[in-house]
Write a structure and sequence with these properties.
Length: 428
């Protein structure tokens, strides 16, 4: 049985998609990069916010239009969140798979296509051979679900309570990926900072275990909730250069009134102290964050607090999103929601003010010799990433090189300039 999978949504959903492929592969099905050749199409959907839901449903409808006779399964977050409704209403699918149990999707896939499966070995079932990341890099999901219950977020509704994997299980997966020449391990979860809160483990213990692995590789941490940032990881990162001093910390806002309404604890002062602590312990550290505009109750005063925080924090990278009123979450019923126009203007103001901040922050690398992970060759240039650039969201290192460079490998070179949010690098 040949199948095609369309991965939508966040990187945590991407890991699920890769696990679905690994499981189906291990039971004898063949993954095809081209839906034309497939007997089965799986749309691994996102159900986080309105726009993502629309994209998932439109993707199914367009596959049905292009492939009227193929079997189509809708999996992922949208299927988990609205399984009952979609089974009734989304006739373009042959099945809506709302469960997280991988066993179930393979049974469904083989039954739906009327094909027989082979018995998988445990290793094969867990070995993600198909990765949607660029060469040399892989995401590792260390936990599922979230207990933070931010009032605007539907994730706990979709993914349930925090469920951390064991340190041994994660280290084994790191070892397997390193054996397959992966040199950047991006640890992800809904909130890395909560890792182990349900099992007695901790992010610090996990990093110590990973640091026992042999080899030359990077470990990148993505999504650390600021309210319980585990400061003890900073010394571990300082002690092993393979841990990148790169921190994605979604502050969301800085006005205490708004943060309380978001069911968050911090505020501008606490967050500035955290940033200062990180930069004091790791002077080279890079901080990415996310802001949310248009949350119910957000006033001009709140917004000015956020602007002042942006100026004081001087973050390296910033993403700004507009509040999406999601059914089933506490913020759905909150009043005094700013208009979409106001929310959009505030987003634009933050982005415009962030541009010179980011440019100034990345200019500190000019003149330095640095390592980069080479990912692509485009229009006579190699596109790579430095430690200060996460996959897909930050700028890149644009490399001029007289010699051929291996994709998915590290190279050393000099940073010779900036072009927008990218850094120009020379490799000799
Ligand atoms: S920490 Fe992130 S995933 Fe968890 S509830 Fe808050 S926004 Fe959602």
């Amino acid at each position: 049985m040949k199948f095609y999978l369309e991965p939508l949504g966040c990187v945590k959903n991407q890991v699920d998609a890769e696990n679905i492929i690994a499981r189906l592969n291990s039971e004898g099905a063949e993954f095809s990069e081209n839906p034309d050749e497939a007997d089965l199409i799986i749309v691994n959907s996102c159900g986080f916010i309105e726009d993502a839901k629309k994209e998932s449903i439109n993707t199914v409808i367009s596959f049905r239009k292009d492939y009227p006779d193929k079997k189509i399964i809708l999996s992922g977050c949208l299927a988990r969140r609205y399984e009952k409704e979609l089974k009734l209403e989304l006739n373009e699918t042959d099945a809506v798979f709302g469960s997280e149990k991988l066993d179930d999707i393979t049974t469904l896939a083989f039954n739906l296509t009327g094909t027989t499966r082979t018995t998988p070995t445990h290793e094969a079932a867990a070995d993600r051979t198909k990765l949607f990341s660029l060469p040399g890099s892989a995401y590792i999901k260390i936990a599922e679900g979230c207990n933070n219950h931010c009032s605007f977020c539907a994730i706990p509704l979709i993914r349930g309570r925090l469920c951390s994997r064991s340190v041994d299980d994660i280290v084994n997966e790191c070892r397997t990926l390193l054996k397959r020449d992966i040199i950047e391990l991006c640890l992800v979860a809904q909130d890395l900072a909560s890792y182990g809160a349900d099992t007695g483990e901790s992010l610090a213990a996990l990093l110590r275990a990973i640091s026992t692995l042999e080899g030359d590789f990077w470990v990148r941490l993505l999504y650390l909730h600021p309210d319980h940032f585990p400061l003890e990881i900073l010394d571990i990162i300082a002690g092993d250069k393979r841990f990148l001093p790169y921190f994605d910390i979604p502050f969301q806002h800085a006005s205490p009134t708004l943060l309380r309404a978001m069911n968050r604890r911090g505020g501008a002062d606490e967050y500035l102290n955290l940033i200062e602590h990180i930069r004091t312990t790791l002077p080279d550290s890079v901080i990415r964050s996310t802001f949310l505009t248009g949350f119910p109750g957000e006033t001009d005063t709140d917004f000015n607090i956020l602007l002042d925080f942006q100026n004081a924090a001087m973050m390296d990278w910033l993403g700004v999103f507009i509040f999406s009123r999601e059914d089933g979450v506490p913020a759905y019923t909150l009043k005094a929601r700013p208009s979409k126009k106001t929310a959009g203007e505030r987003k634009q103001t933050l982005e415009i003010r962030q541009t010179p901040i980011t440019e100034k922050r990345i200019e500190r690398f000019i003149g330095r010799r640095m390592r980069a992970l080479v990912e692509e060759y485009v229009d006579d240039f190699y596109i790579a990433r430095l430690f200060c650039q996460a996959p897909e969201v930050d700028g890149a290192a644009v490399i001029e090189s007289a010699r051929d460079l291996p994709l998915g490998a590290f190279v050393e070179g000099e940073i010779i300039g900036r072009a927008g949010f990218d850094l120009r690098m020379r490799v000799t």
